[in-house]
Amino acid sequence: MEIEYEVQIRKATEADLRDIVRLWKGNIRTINTSSDIADLYHSFERYFFVVTMADKVIGFVGGAIRRGHGHISGLAVDKGYRMEEIGKRLLKIVDHEFRASGFDKVTLEVRKSNWGAIRFYKKQGYKRAYLIKGYYADGEDAIVYEKKI
Ligand SMILES: CC(C)(COP(=O)(O)OP(=O)(O)OC[C@H]1O[C@@H](n2cnc3c(N)ncnc32)[C@H](O)[C@@H]1OP(=O)(O)O)[C@@H](O)C(=O)NCCC(=O)NCCS
């Protein structure tokens, strides 16, 4: 008999931090250390959500407040669970939280070479705003995307 587990999205808790760090470092090319990620979580925990399946954390979104608007600091879905609308649901739930806080705009940075994520964000209504030359530690440019919510 095959057991079908339900995918659930909920607010992240302190106990999820290890999984968030694992997913962040394992899926996003970043120089953020575990302690940078923990600091972000502690500053902006209202905007952190995880997706679980059978109690295993398979995705997360980490939002923040940046210059008076919402910002996506990190978003990742485990490789085996992509293209199942999980990323889309994570963005939706954090947008809802940003709106509830009174923000009307969300921004994010993405590596110029990260075509998959760029396609994904465009499909979620993000528009290219501007480029930041050499934004990443390895010299790659970032493209800033934004969306009115
Ligand atoms: C980007 C990411 C979070 C998308 O998550 P996901 O759960 O696979 O995305 P979804 O299934 O919700 O996709 C929503 C839409 O985007 C599209 N999409 C998602 N990933 C895509 C890709 N790599 N290439 C093209 N389109 C893509 C889907 O086809 C879907 O389109 P539809 O609405 O027309 O059906 C996931 O690929 C990921 O974790 N990537 C690695 C980490 C990363 O790059 N994060 C972003 C930088 S911080």
- Any idea what the CATH superfamily of one domain is called? Gcn5-related N-acetyltransferase (GNAT)
- Summarize the main sheet: 7 strands, mixed
Average pLDDT figure:
96
Structural class: alpha+beta
Strand and helix order: EHHEEEHEHEE
The amount of beta strand, in percent, is: 25-35%
CATH topology name of one domain, in short, is Aminopeptidase
CATH arch. level architecture of one domain = 3-Layer(aba) Sandwich
Distance between the termini: 43 Å
Please write out the topology.
Elements (H helix, E strand, L loop, with lengths): L6 E5 L5 H11 L6 H10 L4 E6 L2 E11 L2 E9 L8 H15 L4 E7 L3 H9 L3 E6 L9 E7 L1
Parallel strand pairs: 4-5
Antiparallel strand pairs: 1-2, 2-3, 3-4, 5-7, 6-7
Helix pairs in contact: 1-2
Coenzyme A binds next to strand 4, helix 3 and helix 4.
What does this structure look like?
- By secondary structure, the chain is an alpha+beta fold.
- It has a domain at 7-106: Gcn5-related N-acetyltransferase (GNAT) (Aminopeptidase, 3-Layer(aba) Sandwich).
- Helices cover 30% and strands 34% of the residues.
- It contains four helices and seven strands, in the order βααβββαβαββ.
- The protein has a seven-stranded mixed β-sheet, sandwiched between helices.
- Helix 1 (17-27) crosses helix 2 (34-43).
- It starts with 6 loop residues before the first strand and ends with a strand.
- The chain binds coenzyme A.
